[in-house]
Amino acid sequence: LFVTPEARGTGGGRALVQAAIQEAKTNGRELLKLDTTRNLTAAIRLYQDLGFEFCAPYPESDHFDDDVLGPHLVFMQLRLSGVSMG
Question: Rounded to an integer, what distance in angstroms lies between the CA atom of residue 2 and that of residue 16?
Fold first, then answer.
């Protein structure tokens, strides 16, 4: 997900993540995973606010074994059972 600088702080990022969560739930998914760079602290706070927790790197990530980008990443996941989108 990407939110342009001028759109940041408007709730657009939150709406995008919530839509992704809802779509995953609608399609019967049980777990969402993501990776992002450590410097995107606002995004990380948003993910945490929506219930994502830090997890170990996972091999499905496009950057799992990237020697250059890998050290700058954090990996997160959200178990969808019990997540309500109120």
Answer: 9
